[in-house]
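Q: For a teaching handout, I want to show students what a protein-ligand complex looks like in token form. Below are the inputs, and the small molecule is zinc ion. Please produce the holo structure.
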Amino acid sequence: MFDLIVRGANLPDGRTDIDIAVAGGRIVALGPHLPGAGRREIDARGRLVTPPFVDSHFHMDATLSVGRPRVNESGTLLEGIAIWAEQKPLLTVDDVRERALAFCRWAIARGSLAIRTHVDVCDDRLTAVDALLDVRRVMAPYIDIQIVAFPQDGFLRSPNARANLLRALDRGVDVVGGIPHFERTMSDGATSVRELCEIAEARGLRVDMHCDETDDPNSRHVETLAAETVRLGLQGRVTGSHLTSMHSMDNYYASKLIALMREAELHAVANPLINITLQGRHDTYPKRRGMTRVRELAAAGVNVSYGHDCVMDPWYSLGSHDMLEVAHMAVHVGQLTGRSEMRSAFAGVTTNGAATLGLTDYGLDVGKSADMVVLQATDPIEAIRLRAHRLSVIRRGAVIAESPPVALHLSLGETSALVDFGATHGPIGERQTVAS
Ligand SMILES: [Zn+2]
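A: Here is the structure, written as tokens, with zinc ion included.
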């Protein structure tokens, strides 16, 4: 007797009618028509069952604080940073913790069970650090939280940032962050990248920097980040987040840079909801999109994943932590509308995110923790199209969120129908034979 069997699932890799058996919180068997019974069985026939959504880039210390102490009227990155600076002295551990916990409940209900959050360390009290370390501990049974020590006001530019960042790492923060484009000079930016990578190397930690989050094509700190990664032997452990300047770079330079990023095994994180709203703000027309070169990076073999970045904070007043909304926006902003490109956008909020975070216990394979989400969609493309409803969210074999399928009763005169927006025309993609 298994603890749980999910029956008849469609998997993101295209396999259909797969049963997934769970015991002791782990996947113990996976295949078509498994014998045996489960104490609980979920009928997932025709539904997509996916490993959980992974958010590669978020800010839990600022989430759900929109309007405090004022709203961002210009909508710019820099006004958002100024508002956050006004809010920072007012933060308390309880306030940050309660907002972050409320946010985690939203994320879990949406099937996001792994999140890398940055935490601002430019507050001498380390209020947000203490709050998020507590949230990581309290929520550990339900969601994997990685915390990045993020010197929001600049590692060199802010007088106590270095000491505070080291104190945050001493307290158990997981990853070394940075913001080289916000330092006072290009050369300070490069120095900050070097010194932060050295801290990570000395402590055996990963690196994830806000890097070149600007429309300036000459903001090239990702080059230094990749070069330092190679110099210090950190391949596969370093992430460049945002990388929006790459959108505006000279094509020849970008082609050389992308090869270096591949050699450094750098992970690239794009934040499409935020990039499309914050970038290009100094442009009149034409107005740049600003998202990094997802298609070219992926084609070169660079792992690209996506982040939500913000939910209801000084930079973005919308959102409910739906990673399918993120993938949907990535498809639009990056013009990733080919069938395989849309599937790769789904990977960007699932498996590629797990690779960025370095999660090893992730995926629908025998022996892995039984973490998965049943969606009201047949495949990854339909999941993105509908930003599909989450039917079951499963963590370590236990159903921690569930909902009946969504459908609308439609009454049109004499006829009535149930509408769920699911496809009615059969599979797309293979050449259809037209009957004569
Ligand atoms: Zn960010």
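A: Two things your students might notice: The first helix runs from residue 77 to 87. The chain is about 35% helix and 20% strand.
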